[in-house]
Amino acid sequence: MSFSTSSKSTLDINSSSFDAEYYVQDLLRKKGLEELVAVEQDMVNNVRRLDSEMQSLVYENYSKFLNATSTVKDMQNRLTDAHNEMNSLSSRMNKITDLSDSLTEKFAKNCERVKKLNEARDSVKRLEFLIKAPQILQTCVEQNDFSKAVNTFVSIQPKLEKLKNLPSMAGIASDSEKIMEGVKKQLSEQLERRLISSESVIQAVQLLKKLEYLKMN
């Protein structure tokens, strides 16, 4: 499958038009779960590497700042009307300014790259959570924690609905919906039997309303 230039730029983390969500959807089409985990780990390593590079940049240039600043102070203390000394001072001041501008530019580039890597990593982590949704929901059901199951499903259902047409997500969306149909059935049966406390009745009604509202929307 070929991509247009604009599509490639949205997938390039170094591009100003990088799109984290589009990047994740492209990963979904091409990668399996193990590969997605590997992608996340690679992002973590990149963030750590960039952080390390930024720290090294500070350490390497800190002494330059100190030396340049010290020189300027010494020259100011010994300042005379000599024209040559004034020119030397001006030259050193310009070098400090150039060094400062250079460092600012390098920091800005690294900070932007770290930001993009973190955005992409967060998107991949959210995707991993979606992939594990059926397992998470089933665990809640087995523990009779219907409140957590419903709230979890409510939070991820819009994303599942958006991605369910992708082959890799269709089964996950379907399994999640089946589990929640079972939850809905159990909550309804609890109300019909009337063998639960008034507090549990209120909770069951509220959870069913959440599921019905989600279904209508």
Automatic annotation (TrEMBL):
GO terms for cellular component: cytosol; EARP complex; GARP complex; membrane. One of its GO terms (biological process) is protein transport. Keywords: Coiled coil, Golgi apparatus, Lipid transport, Protein transport, Transport. Pfam families: VPS51_Exo84_N (PF08700). It is found in: Golgi apparatus, trans-Golgi network. Component of the Golgi-associated retrograde protein (GARP) complex. Acts as component of the GARP complex that is involved in retrograde transport from early and late endosomes to the trans-Golgi network (TGN). PANTHER family: VACUOLAR PROTEIN SORTING-ASSOCIATED PROTEIN 51 HOMOLOG. Belongs to the VPS51 family. This is Vacuolar protein sorting-associated protein 51 homolog. It comes from Meloidogyne enterolobii. The lineage of its organism: Eukaryota, Metazoa, Ecdysozoa, Nematoda, Chromadorea.
